[in-house]
Amino acid sequence: MQIGHLVIPLPPLIFLLAVFAALSVAGVLGPGRATAEADVAIVICVGLLVARLAFVARYVSDYGDLLQVLDVQDLGFDAPAGLLGSFLILAWRLTRKDARRLPVIVALLAGTVVYGSGQVLASQMVQPDLPRATLPTTTDTTEIIQISGKPTVINVWATWCPPCQAELPVFAQMQREMPGVNFIFLNEDIDTSGVRPYLEARDIRLDHSLHDPRGNLATRLSVRGYPTTLFYDRSGRLVAEHLGPFSQATLSDALKHLFPK
């Protein structure tokens, strides 16, 4: 979603709307000292905490330090574990004598409906297939983007974009480790002369590093902000889109689920 120059990734926006709906319903139905709002907030917070810890536990070797674990911008959450944690804390909270059971349950159901509806609407948005295009490369040649019979990942980035800078080494490593996936790096710098020195200074080696200085291909791909990563299946059909930075863990998780071996 884009508000002026502010671009908000859709998944967290849908989640925040669902949380707002749940808390609003709880506030209307359960006013009083032992508020239903508090119970709903606790259920949501515990679910998020459990989901994050479970995800980190699965990919602990990919998180270098505590700061990376705390940086939830990578959206690394284990949904089933989070739901289980929420259910257990909900069951415990509802056993209290002063629990406002009906308002809490109705509020959480309202949040679930909003979240589910948002996911359905998001899935029905137009998903363009992999376009054919010829673009200049970082090595001063040209390259054709086309259906190759392999899964394709297009990472749209710019040298002036801090989240892009953070995730680019992760993509470079993944490109080396997964030769069965066609990784394409689409740079959006208006002045392309600094891209190659930028990569060389940081010892980042990319195959299929292309320039799109006027943003023509990014427009065709419906890119709204940077970094954006697009995942296409073997037939060139878009199967997933991610706005925002990946960590080593979340990129590994996405590739494992989208392109299982």
UniProtKB/TrEMBL annotation:
Pfam families: Redoxin (PF08534). InterPro entries: Redoxin (IPR013740), Thioredoxin-like_sf (IPR036249), Thioredoxin_CS (IPR017937), Thioredoxin_domain (IPR013766), Thioredoxin_ResA/DsbE_sf (IPR050553), YD (IPR006530). It is found in: Cell envelope. Signal peptide: none annotated. The chain crosses the membrane at residues 6-28, 40-59, 79-95, 102-122. Keywords: Cytochrome c-type biogenesis, Membrane, Redox-active center, Transmembrane, Transmembrane helix. This is Thiol:disulfide interchange protein. It comes from Caballeronia zhejiangensis.
